[in-house]
Amino acid sequence: MHEMAIAEGILDISLNYAKREKAKKIACVSLLLGEMSGVETEALTFCFESLVKDTIAEGSSLVINRIPLMGRCKECANEEHIEHYNFVCHKCGGTLEVISGRELQVEYIDME
Ligand SMILES: [Zn+2]
Predict the structure, then answer these.
(1) Which pTM was predicted?
(2) Which of 16, 21, 64, 82 is 20 to 30 A from 73, comparing alpha carbons?
(3) Residue 86 lies in a domain
(4) Distance 77 CA to ligand 1 centre (A)
């Protein structure tokens, strides 16, 4: 499962960070997740919660901030939300370049 591998990556990053900071407990992990990353929020939360058992991140909450898929037109610089993967500018018919929505990264980690 795609989400399991991602959850493992997130947990790895969090545990390494906590170790470096000599934290005893991870309270919260905040994620930036782009609309285009193709990750199921619920599945990811489920995987994360099952992985954190018996680690210092047990009981921590995973906060997921969804980033909308936004494009900027190469022709007229119009910025708009891309829907249904339609990369066409609604103002001039030009091509939209993705400027956000591909994110998949840990934003911050709350530790005690
Ligand atoms: Zn345009």
Answers:
(1) 0.85
(2) 64
(3) no
(4) 6
